[in-house]
Amino acid sequence: MKSNIEIIKELYLDFSNGNTEGIKEKFHPEIEWAQMKGFPNGGFHIGFENINKNVFEGFNQNWTNWIVDVNEYVDANESVFAIGKYEGTYNETGKSFQAEFVHRYVVEKGKITKFTQYTDTHLIAEAMRKNASQTGA
Question: Does residue 133 sit within a domain?
Fold first, then answer.
């Protein structure tokens, strides 16, 4: 059986390769996904289909060069923490950003049952904010 850290490392590989089936396979059917409220599509989502539709698809449509770069994994029994940074360019404004994050995953019996995100949502909001010149004002 794979370790919890191995499962999470493989998950990030699946994200970077666009392997939707690999992601779905690692999620418990009733996975609880909590994104910070100020983050795009932030809030609480349950189940892969809901998360895919309301979270992942939005990133693919609205961001260019969206990168999630994990530089440390911390094993804490059933929890795994991934620490790193986001980078991306918001298509509508052309603005880029970088923000550090911590992701907490709960893994039970080889399946990811919970995800919680911690990041500076202000930096992402600034990339999404139109300037007066972009709004025609």
Answer: no
Pairing of strands 63-76, 43-46: unpaired
137 lies in some domain: no
Rounded Cα distance, 1 and 22, in Å: 16
State the CATH number of the domain containing residue 86: 3.10.450.50
- Are the beta carbons of 112 and 34 closer than 8 angstroms? no
59 occurs within a structural domain: yes
pLDDT tens digits in sequence order for the chain, 137 residues long: 899 999 999 999 999 999 999 999 999 999 999 999 888 888 999 999 999 998 888 877 889 888 999 999 999 999 999 999 999 999 999 999 999 999 999 999 999 999 999 999 999 999 999 875 555 54
pTM to 2 decimals?
0.90
